[in-house]
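Example record

One chain of 156 residues, shown exactly as stored in the release files.
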Amino acid sequence: MTALSPFYPLPEAGGAPDRVDPVAVRVLIVDDDPKIRRIISICLSLESGFEVVGEASGGAEAVKLAATSRPDVVLLDLEMPGMNGLAAMPAIRREVPDAKIAVLSAFPDPFTLGDALSRGADTYLDKAMGLAELPAVLRSLVEPDGQDDDPSSLTP
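Predicted structure tokens for this chain:
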């Protein structure tokens, strides 16, 4: 169905160690496919600096979880039964206005991209992207770009 690779290394027997990182990027994963949610969750659990704070299978559930889990990033599928990602996005934005919304879709097209961005998405990710790239993309949403801290970027 998607290119979210089943070849991403899985945790050793016993699972990945629980990491409690006070500055971890808190991620809410929203996708109607439980296999996709699981693969993304495993991927992020193997990266330091990430904490999956919840998983939702639809838009209405995502809005409720966003309000209670207060994620830094919502990874949001668009095509879901019931309340889809486009419909959920404004409500999620109202619940957690500072959260970044990364739309994840298997059907990228310019019209949907424009619609997602106009409803509050911060970025639009194709499910065909390599899973190994996902942590860096999510981290880039919440971390400052560093340009202001670089003295060479300042003009006299």
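Notes: DSSP finds five helices and five strands in the chain.
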